[in-house]
Design goal:
mainly beta, about 0% helix, four-stranded antiparallel β-sheet, about 120 residues, seven-stranded mixed β-sheet
Length: about 120
């Protein structure tokens, strides 16, 4: 069974930085694609950043150039470095682990960590 535990959220002023972490258990981290999503109040959950098992990355236009996703397979952990934070980045941030199986794709979600950008 895969479990994901996010950490690193908090309150930060506009222009500040935070680094989120998502630690995975279960033994399949190195072959999985990892995503960071966020959901603001009253809005749909949106994909923020992705890193594949081969460390290819992709970002939402809204965070391109400000956020960096990375992974450490030795620690079974994915990170989201968030710089130049804006009030509109306020949301609950979730990590997702996904990998292919014969029947399709299997996915797991973390419990989320709150990020609040406010002065």
């Amino acid at each position: 069974q895969v479990q994901l535990v996010e950490s690193g959220g908090g309150l930060v002023q506009p222009g500040g930085s935070l680094r989120l972490s998502c630690a995975a258990s279960g033994g399949i981290f190195s072959i999985a694609t990892m995503d960071w999503y966020r959901q603001a109040p009253g809005k749909e959950r949106e994909l923020v950043a992705t890193v594949t098992s081969g460390s290819r990355t992709n970002y939402a236009d809204s965070v391109q150039g400000r956020f960096t996703i990375s992974r450490d397979n030795a620690k079974n952990t994915v990170y989201l470095q968030m710089n130049s934070l804006k009030p509109e980045d306020t949301a609950v941030y979730y990590c997702r682990l996904r990998f292919g199986v014969i029947s399709g794709v299997r996915e797991y979600w973390g419990q989320g960590t709150q990020v609040t950008v406010s002065s």
